Amino acid sequence: MARDEYDTRRIDGADEGAPAPDALAAFREELGQSAFEGGQRWGRAPRRVNATDNSIYQIEPAAVLEPRHAADVALAMGIAARHGIAMAPRGGGTGTNGQSLTRGVVLDTSRHMRRIVDFDPEAGRIRVGPGMILDELNAWLKSHGWMFAPSVSTGSRATIGGMVATDASGKGSCRYGRTSDHLLSVDVVFADGSTGALRDMGAEEIAAETEWDGPLGRVLACLVEGLPGQRDEIAAVFPEMNRSLTGYNLRDAAGPDGGLRLPKLFAGSEGTLAVATEIELSLTRMPAHRGLALLGYDDCDAALGSVTDLLAAGPEAVEFLDDTVVRLGRATPVWTDLQPFMGALAERGGFLFAEAAGDTPEAVAAQLAEIDRIAQAQAACRGCVSSTDPAVMKAMSEFRRDSVGLLSRGGDGRQGTAFVEDAAVPPANLAEFVRDFRAILDEADLRYGMFGHADAGCVHVRPMLNMRIAEDRALIRPISDAVAALAKRHGGLIWGEHGKGVRGEYLETYFGPALYRYLREIKTAFDPENRLNPGKLVVPIGAPGAVGRIDNLPFRGAHDAEIGAVEGFATALSCNGNGACFHWDAAQEMCPSYRATGDRVQSPKGRATLIRAWLREREAGGDPAALREAERDLRQSLSTCLSCKACTSQCPVRVDIPAMKSRFLSEQEGSRPRRDMIVCLLEPATILAAKIPALSLSRAIWQSATVRRGVERLFGMADLPSLPGRSVGAAMRGTGARPWTAGSGDLVLLTDSFLGVFDPDILAAAARCLAVVSDDVRFTPILANGKAREVRGLLAGLPELRTRLAERLRAIAEDGATLVSVEPAFTMLLRQEMGDLLADVPVASIEDVLHERRSRLPHAANPGRFRLIGHCTQTAADPDHLARWRATFAAAGHTLETVRSGCCGMAGLWGHEAENAGLSREIYDLSWKFHVEDGDGELLATGFSCRSQVHRFGRRALRHPAQVLAVQDG
């Protein structure tokens, strides 16, 4: 299949909105000749990446458009209307029910339409593009004392447009309400390409409208003529609870004075009525003070039965975790830090987390005291502890987040699967509802964990399924039907928080036939030809098409079932589309290439998707052209992967793209880049040059800039590092460290092939530090590790090299010595890539040892102020290492501010490849540039690549923290 050819292959149930090839070609031609300024993605790779979200479905669109502004949206939709092309807006892609999946054209507003348009700090109002990310917005608002209150767990990548589309709520909704409660107005583009504004309208203003033309006129007429007659039915059908039926919110659409509240109607409509281009929101003042109370119970049932008592204290939120999630949480790194706070409650099986907020410390303390009083009066409560310490509250938040992340990973091929994961009932019914819900899942013999917003009666549960297995896929229908009926019986909803999407098939069950027909009339007024996200919620009266059903759309697992052997690529199939790699913050480590490009094809999720597509084409074996296309797309996407390994730590399901990139490159046939000829020789040659004095002439030749430039041109490299003026042995003289011999050493410094070859002075500084805290410090010869070969997929002989290295380190450890690594890239290689080989050989980092023995460090005669950026791979996997550096510097009398700044853009070999120089600079400019050029105190960096990158682009030489501590003279 040609690269740009639209895939006309169909899977039963997925045809809704699929354009005819001739119509699509005409649309593409006209759009290409128009003034459309956004991105047009017609290739297979972006379509495949947009074929999934955080749901169980996979539907490939015909194209992906990335509009830059409202005029682009109007232009594209006007052209689409002329050619009968269906459109579906898309935000963060975090939907759990296939809301934005379509066979039509995707309008992705998240890439460009994410600016703040206007802000009124006095009135607490703001206008933003629909692609603005929630956490990014709140980070900007924080300095002004405001926040956008609805809080969703996917806030690092959830867009405001997406939150409006699902009427998102999340934690704290009982106090702050849903997104629709803060929605003032929405600028939209209608299905025909015309524009309008949806806002509240009074009865007099509506009466003054004499000519109701166009979509907005049809909508007003439909509401004015039909809504009053539905009032009694609406009152009888809509549940009395924090969550609502929404989509379309008939109860709140009618204003109190006979007017209309059009934003309320629009919120929750999931792209089926119009496309938002600007959104006006009301803001909430940030509470000045916060606190948290932890209540322990024997199990989840006891905890949930106690929720309604706590609501009398007016907490900001009450969350719960069940026994399974708590048990998983005990395996998270933060559990150790929480145990002192939790005390005896740490052994309990069910928790409630009650959060307090107020304008004064006294107000928070009073609320926590009231929560404690209520807890003490509960027979089921086994204890209550509270805190206003931000560190404790942060740790508790991480505990909940990490334990739920573990639930997503599952085991035995099964993982937490979203399809009945956000049901909600009135809080008074929650305990009984959960017991009945559990009975449904237990009868199906499924493992699961439950957590959620107890104050709102919202339960999150992701049963463990292997969607590659037909028997597990067959459970989607009976379990969904049972949960939908159960929620309705308890006065609630199967969709309590994450929207409906393909669950729209249950709309008539909940709304009843009369209101359901009225929903269709509203859809008809907005979109009579069913061109906006067809197949979702309802179908216009008289229009062709049908609402999708939960089990007649293509499952992602069914696609994956076509893949045979996945040795080396298994984590690609684990990607559940949650989109954590789409976060907004450049200071976070995952994923630098996505952060710089904004292209989701260049992300862990995008790469995992393309790996699965390549594996499928390879397994099918019937279309060589399709396989070549899949290989090209995957190779291009992987070419921008820095192999920084952050995804292996920060992705909730630990998708390991660098390992799969290495495996993919190793399996590719044909000629390799010329530079791969020297990669295999690079490490042994540089080690040899670094340690043999007779080769000093070679080092002198390499010092020549002319020689290095010639090598760079020949092999497609850039800015290669120079060799130092002395060997590691010479650098170690006078440090107090001696060469390691069998049976010797309290602390053995591992001489890695990065610092040992290119920067032995760092190792010497580390040796001086260690000599202060130990009487017997040794150092090894330079140790080869094969990192560059692995990155380039040159795997022949690598297992043997790593086995020899592991045996060497094990021999040292068996002599009773502590192994100490200085270079973070080497430390993490030993812990991650060689983790299985070294499972019984602990490797301490330099800061581990210095922190443990910090009481022996001398106090600085001249204390200083410093800033430190950790290496991205280590910081992603072990963020607490920055705190250990802080405490170590404090013990020596220094002040150290630790900074998270994402990836520097070098990442070893990748940053030296000539074709990556531009992107490498863009990644550096995202965050590192600011910290290098600004800030109080000398900037330090732990990573060799990081220091090299700063020297390259910042023209500054940074020191390693060990070099500061090594010059103590107190």
Automatic annotation (TrEMBL):
Residues 632-663 form the 4Fe-4S ferredoxin-type domain. Keywords: 4Fe-4S, FAD, Flavoprotein, Iron, Iron-sulfur, Metal-binding, Oxidoreductase. It comes from the Bacteria. Pfam families: FAD-oxidase_C (PF02913), FAD_binding_4 (PF01565), Fer4_8 (PF13183). Its EC number is 1.1.99.39. It is an enzyme of class 1 (oxidoreductase). In the N-terminal section; belongs to the FAD-binding oxidoreductase/transferase type 4 family. The keyword Iron applies. GO terms for biological process: lactate catabolic process. It catalyses: (R)-2-hydroxyglutarate + A = 2-oxoglutarate + AH2. GO terms for molecular function: (R)-2-hydroxyglutarate dehydrogenase activity; 4 iron, 4 sulfur cluster binding; D-lactate dehydrogenase (cytochrome) activity; D-lactate dehydrogenase (NAD+) activity; FAD binding; metal ion binding. InterPro entries: 4Fe4S_Fe-S-bd, 4Fe4S_Fe_S_CS, FAD-bd_oxidored_4_C, FAD-bd_PCMH, FAD-bd_PCMH-like_sf, FAD-bd_PCMH_sub1, FAD-bd_PCMH_sub2, FAD-linked_Oxase-like_C. Residues 57-286 form the FAD-binding PCMH-type domain. It comes from Palleronia aestuarii. Its cofactor is FAD. This is D-2-hydroxyglutarate dehydrogenase.
